[in-house]
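Just curious: can you write whichever protein you like plus the matching structure tokens?

***
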Amino acid sequence: MNGMSPWAAAAASELAGTEDALFSASLASYNFKIINTSDAIWICATPPGGGQMAFRCVFAAGSALVVTRIKKHDKGLDLSLSSGAGIFETRITFEDAEVPVLRYTTSLKPERDLYIPFWPRDILLTTKKGNAENTAGQIHASQWGTRSGFIYMSMTRPKSSSIFYLQNLTALNDYCQQTETSLGDSVGGNWPELGFALPVANKKPLRAGKKVVISDAFVAFENNVPESEPEMIRGYLNLLERVYMCLPLPATNYQHWPEVLDKGLKDLIDSPGCWTQVAGHQYFNAYVSDYNTPPEIMVQLAVLLPLLDYVEWSKTDLEVMKTIKEGLPAFFDEKLGTITRWLPASEDKLEGEEEQKQAGVMDSWYLHHPLLNLSRLALKGDKVCEKLFLDSLPYAMKVARHFKYQWPVFYKMDTLEILKAETAEGMGGEKDVAGIYAHVMLQAWELTNDKRYLNEAEKAAQSLQGMGFQIFYQANSTAFSSGALLRLYKITKKEVYLDLSYMCLAGIFRNTQLWDCNYGYGKNFPTFFALFPLNDATYTAVYEEQEVFCALHDYLRHAEGLNILPSVRLLIAEYIRYLVDRAVYYYPTMLPKDMLEEKPKIGEVDTKLWIALEDLQDGWLKSGTVGQEVYGAGNAFGILPRHYLQVPGEEFLIYVDYPTAGFNARKGQDIHFSILGDQRMHCRMMIVRTGTAKLPEFEVIGSGLSQRLEGNEVNDGNLEYLVNGNQQISISWGKS
């Protein structure tokens, strides 16, 4: 028997006794009724397998609710209602398809200033007769913090169907601005009361006479209850895509990344706060002006690899890369036979103010991330990095086998004594480390052709089964894991690895923010599709986002020629599209000074430096509270080579905010390449001037189109085109 609140018990009783409906509709195999109870409007969905899912789109908080207008439209119903609280308006629409989608959008114009001390959740799960006590279900995943306001769940008693519910929290910004409330943890609940509840507003009221949206919900229905983890994960990805296609997506803007990169490179090299010196070698600080923490190998390599991407793209040399490489061998501990996190010559500076800031202590992911980057350099022919990588592998394998491929959070490097076993009580350790370890082993196999490493990668990968959404510990590790598992699938043809790669991607998307925070300081930067770095992080972070961005590009590259889920292609491309706009706002130079923390946790924030902040916070909190992240400097260096296509001998670049493939321009020849993603979605393509001359006349043809694409002239004489995903592009012009 389910426990219920008095509000749910009263609602269930009224629903059970109400037969009349304001409106009825059938979509796919579902029947819908719109019912008016004493103080609410309910949309009741009856799945073919039994049970009832009731969605409260209007709530008058005990006041009599009077319907003053009913207007049918081609997809549903518009209602106007009066109550003691004020005037409600709600639009209810039904999108008919194999997977039907319900949307209800409700506004309130208060009669008087209104405080909101409580608001019930808007979903009630009952039997067909309105009994909520005898139903049961499983909540697969739901909102945490300020991530997307969603619930993905299945009704299991009666065994009927699954739904993906998403509250479009962007629509509620005005409510939060008026009441000074946050939308964190606004979607959740306990069975059978789930869904969205307005944030409690005790500090400031809603103003009388000012209309404000108080709900904008999307619900996708699937006539299936998943029986296995892979089925559940695929259901999540497909239903997320279905709802995403219905969302009012915010517009993006073009950011001129070549200029951003030039400014960032200058500040990275020239700013004293980015550097420290030990034993005659220069090393990057982790944070600007952080001179108390020893140099870390992860930091050096996290900057070096994006610089290498840029150098390979631009065909230039950077002296700073030589400086970084010269300091790497000093991180190898001969006694342990491995690279270490902290520079051994400076470990005596550690004061133990944090659990991991002790000599000889390893945070599990910190061992594998540098190994991964060393392997990338080794595969490009760097012999120093190859030796550091191969010499460290026996230690990494010893640790993996000791912990049976289930890594703790912190351990002692010499004895392998566990110092912190779990991220939180009952949650286990760093679960995605098995995936990044598998990635390291695959790199070793590719470098040496030694099958021991391939076998080791498979052992680690198999340990990930059963983790579901809990696979996600740290965003970049989970993203690297997804790519490694896809590669294992290609090598072995074992379907389990493809399913596990989807599981990792589901963990990524479950930790994104599919809404734009425009209250408080949030008005100063876009947040739609932002990604949180840890499963319990309260802010988004530049370093993890930049690495996930690169990892997802690699995922699509490895997926070429494979029949992967269309939802995966679409969601990856859309994350990338939004990131190349959003990411510039991690730089403090792009933000008002009053929203930045004056005394960060580590180092200092120099608002004039083009060095990214670690953290962007919820709208009511200041950002830059952790510090200014030197190891997040790869931001621009990762974006430019992946989104700007060079044309030999010409004074323009081709920019696309979707991922692309197959670009191989030759001097004096037309350009042909593929835009990835999904053809149902649009992206921005630009022809960007790099010289002083006016752009020539272009002819741009997209596959499947009977006429050429027309560009619009925008700032600085550039041309902008709106193009579809998943198509071939051909560009020709009058050549000199």
In short: The chain has a mean pLDDT of 95. DSSP finds 15 helices and 37 strands in the chain. The radius of gyration is 27 Å. Residues 99 and 221 are 6 Å apart (CA to CA).
